[in-house]
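Task: encode each sequence below as structure tokens.

Item 1
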Amino acid sequence: MSTLPNCPSCSSEYTYEDGTMYVCPECAHEWAKEGEQEALADETVITDAHGNILQDGDSVTVIKDLKIKGSSSVVKVGTKVKNIRLVGGDHDIDCRIEGIGAMKLKSEFVKKS
């Protein structure tokens, strides 16, 4: 009898351990072991374009003109964004830009103010 958890993606019972991860051979989904998830979350550090570590509530400045998808608007170089919130994923900064509204930014296009 296996004590390994079922796959959270497809509920397969044929999971196996691979180092600090569980792997499902049926759907190829990989996930961290319970104790390892917190350690992985703590290791994730988001930095700006110059390597400065960003934190929730920081102010940043945009370093490149950014076109807004689905709109003719542009976020200009030098736009200051206050009180950012860090989130996971490709666009790792959630913020509100004055005159434009809520949007997500990539940390590679900002510098810490």
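Item 2
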Amino acid sequence: MAALPNCPQCGYEYTYEDGGLFICPACSHEWTPTAATGTNERKLVKDANGNQLSDGDTVTIIKDLKVKGSSSVLKIGTKAKNIRLVDGDHDIDCKIEGFGAMKLKSEFVKKG
């Protein structure tokens, strides 16, 4: 049996493999085997003020945002906790209380 890598986020040594992903049971971080070797570089994601964002951060919305497919609006000051950075046009996955799962653009949030 090959030794699995430690978690790149928290350093926990007892990770496991599920399908094509490595998973850390301590912090729930998921990554691909190519990310573990450093060949899959993730782009740098910054908020509206230029602060670097990372997985697990809390962000605040800086502009009223219409929710696509709904008549709801996310108001200024709404917080999204424990964000996850993803590739694509909307580079933040999060859950917002009262709205559920959302994808946001980093240009409309600030860290904190």
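Check on item 2: Helices lie at 33-37. Residues 33-37 form the longest helix (5 residues).
End of task.
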